[in-house]
Amino acid sequence: MPDLSRYTVVTRPDDNGTFVAYVPAIPGCHAVGRTPEEARTELANVFSMIAEEYAEEGRALPPDVRELVARAG
């Protein structure tokens, strides 16, 4: 089974006081939580479901992407 630790995970605050965690390389692989830790825990569950779906369809998960984070200005 693929491992979430192989992927870049972004966690950021959302406008409504929650946190969003997502895997940029995998469309739809995102989760929300009241804390960054909760968002990442939920993300692990979402990742597992997506990995299982890919496996059932005989597809490989996409490779990780390289993210460059920069502030404008």
Summarize the structure.
By secondary structure, the chain is of the alpha+beta class. It has one helix spanning 36-56; strands spanning 10-13, 19-22, 30-33.
Topology:
Layout: E1 10-13, E2 19-22, E3 30-33, H1 36-56
Provide the descriptors you would attach to this structure in a database record.
73 residues, alpha+beta, single chain, three-stranded antiparallel β-sheet, globular
Overall description:
This protein has 73 residues and is of the alpha+beta class. It has one helix at 36-56; strands spanning 10-13, 19-22, 30-33. It has a three-stranded antiparallel sheet with strand order 1-2-3, with helices on one face. The protein is globular. The model has no long low-confidence stretch (mean pLDDT 92).
Mean pLDDT: 92
Series of secondary-structure elements, N-terminal to C-terminal? EEEH
**Count of individual beta strands:** 3
Helix count, DSSP H or I runs of 4 or more residues? 1
* N-to-C span: 42 Å
Percent helix range: 25-40%
Structural class: alpha+beta
- Proportion of strand residues: 15-25%
Give a short account of the largest sheet: 3 strands, antiparallel
General shape: globular
Q: For the CA atoms, what is the radius of gyration?
A: 13 Å
Give the low-confidence spans: none
Strand order of the largest sheet: 1-2-3
